[in-house]
Design goal:
Number of helices: 12
Bound molecules: 6-O-phosphono-beta-D-fructofuranose
GO molecular function, one term: 6-phosphofructokinase activity
Number of strands: 11
Helix content: 40-55%
Radius of gyration: 22 Å
Pathway: Carbohydrate degradation; glycolysis; D-glyceraldehyde 3-phosphate and glycerone phosphate from D-glucose: step 3/4
Order of helices and strands: EHEHEHEHEHEHEHEHHEHEEHH
Shape: elongated
Largest sheet: 7 strands, mixed
Protein name: Pyrophosphate--fructose 6-phosphate 1-phosphotransferase
Catalytic activity: beta-D-fructose 6-phosphate + diphosphate = beta-D-fructose 1,6-bisphosphate + phosphate + H(+)
Main location: cytoplasm
Distance between the termini: 59 Å
Strand order of the largest sheet: 3-2-1-4-5-10-11
Length: about 350
C-alpha cells in the first residue's frame, strides 16, 4: 500500500517528528512517500520515497524536510481536476495531510469526494478546533516567553514601555501563554479588544508606580476604535489588521505620543516558529504520526488525529476545520489578574 505524506501551510516545529512517526509506524506492506511542498507537490507530482533511514534523527529539526507551501488546489477548477488526476496517477492508496485549517480543509474536501485521506492538525497558533493542543505551539510559547523574559531587564534599566508582538492573527493563544509565563504587565489579544484610552490608562498607572512596563500583543489585536484613530485607511488590511509596520509599532507610537513615556517595540514574528521543537512537541508530533498511520492501516479515512486530555484520539476531519479555537473569557480573566 502506498501512503503519501504532505506538510502544508506555515512550517512548524514538530512537523519532522510527525513524518518520522508515520514512517516508523508503517512497517511491512506499506510504502511511505513524501509529497514535496504541500498541495503544490500534488499538482506537480513531486514525491520522494521515505524509509526509516531517511527520517533518522529528523524529529529534532525545525521546519519540514518535505518543504511546504500555501497552495489550495480547490481555488480553481483546473487545479482541482489536476489534483484528482494526479492522486490516481501517483497511485496513492492513502494520503496523510499535516497542516492547519487551510491544509485540513483541502483534506476534508478531498475526503468528501471519496479519497482516502487522514489529517494531522498543525499550527503554532493552537487554534484548530477539537484538539487540546497542536504541536509547535509549546515551542512558540517557550521562545516567546524567553524573549519577554529578556525584555524585562532592558525595559527596567531604561524605564521604558516595551511592546512585544507575537504571532496569532485570530487567536491569542501564543501571546496569552507566553505573556503569562514571562509576566507581561498587559496582554492584548484579538479575542478581547480594548480601546486606546484603556491601554493608555494601564500604561500611566503602571509607569507612575513601577517605572517600566512590558506589553505583549498578538499580531491580530485591533484597538476597539481603530477605524476612527487611523486616518489613513490604507494602513488596515482586509482583515482589519494593521498593515504597515504591525500593531506593536503602531501602539508604540501612539502610547509614546499620548503618555510621554519612552516606548519601544519588538516583533518576534517568524522567530517563534523557527528552530528545534521542544521535547513536548517532538513527542506530540510522534504520537500524532503513529496514530495517523494506524488509522491508515485500519482504513479509517476521513479522520483527523487529536489530543483529548492525554489521549490521542481521532475525530471526523471536518470537526477540526469547522471553527477556530479561540481563547475563552475565563482564561483571559485569569491572565487579567496579573495586569498591573
Ligand atoms: O499559521 C501560523 C502562522 O505563523 C501565524 O501565526 C502567522 O500569522 C502566519 O502563520 C504567518 O504566515 P507567513 O509565514 O505566511 O507570513
Amino acid at each position: 500500500m502506498r501512503v503519501g505524506i504532505l506538510t502544508g501551510g506555515g512550517d512548524c516545529p514538530g512537523l519532522n517528528a510527525v513524518i518520522r512517526g508515520i514512517v516508523h509506524a508503517a512497517g511491512e506492506g506499506y510504502e511511505t512517500y513524501g509529497i514535496l511542498n504541500g498541495w503544490k507537490g500534488m499538482l506537480t507530482k513531486e514525491m520522494i520515497k521515505l524509509d526509516n533511514d531517511d527520517v533518522e534523527g529528523i524529529h529534532i529539526l525545525g521546519g519540514t524536510i518535505l518543504g511546504t507551501a500555501r497552495v489550495n488546489p480547490f481555488k480553481d477548477e483546473e487545479s482541482r481536476q489536476l489534483l484528482e488526476k494526479n492522486f490516481k496517477e501517483m497511485k496513492l492508496d492513502a494520503l496523510i495531510a499535516i497542516g492547519g485549517d487551510d491544509t485540513l480543509s483541502v483534506a476534508a474536501r478531498l475526503s468528501s469526494l471519496g479519497y482516502p485521506v487522514i489529517g494531522v492538525p498543525k499550527t503554532i497558533d493552537n487554534d484548530v478546533s477539537n484538539t487540546d493542543y497542536t504541536f509547535g505551539f509549546h515551542t512558540a510559547v517557550n521562545v516567546g516567553a524567553d524573549a519577554i523574559d529578556r525584555l524585562h531587564s532592558t525595559a527596567k534599566s531604561h524605564q521604558r514601555v516595551m511592546i512585544v508582538e507575537l504571532m496569532g492573527r485570530e487567536a491569542g493563544w501564543i501571546t496569552i501563554e507566553a505573556g503569562m509565563a514571562a509576566g507581561a504587565h498587559l496582554i492584548l489579544i484579538p479575542e478581547f479588544p480594548m480601546t486606546i484610552n484603556e491601554i493608555v490608562n494601564y500604561v500611566n498607572k503602571r509607569m507612575q508606580e513601577k517605572k517600566y512596563m512590558i506589553i505583549a500583543v498578538a499580531e491580530g489585536f485591533k484597538p476597539t476604535e481603530l477605524e476612527q484613530v487611523v486616518a489613513d485607511k490604507s494602513t488596515i488590511d482586509a482583515f482589519g489588521h494593521i498593515r504597515l509596520g504591525g500593531i506593536a509599532h503602531y501602539l508604540a507610537e501612539i502610547i509614546e505620543q499620548k503618555t510621554g513615556y519612552e516606548t519601544r517595540s519588538v516583533v518576534l514574528g517568524h522567530l517563534l516558529r523557527g528552530g528545534t521543537p521542544t521535547a513536548f512537541d517532538r513527542i506530540l508530533g510522534t504520537r500524532y504520526g503513529v496514530e495517523a498511520m494506524n488509522l491508515v492501516k485500519e482504513k479509517d479515512f476521513g479522520r483527523m488525529v487529536a489530543l483529548k486530555g492525554n489521549q490521542i484520539v481521532s475525530i471526523p476531519l471536518e470537526y477540526g476545520v469547522a471553527t477556530k479555537k479561540l481563547v475563552p473569557f475565563e482564561y483571559y480573566k485569569l491572565a487579567q489578574l496579573f495586569f498591573d
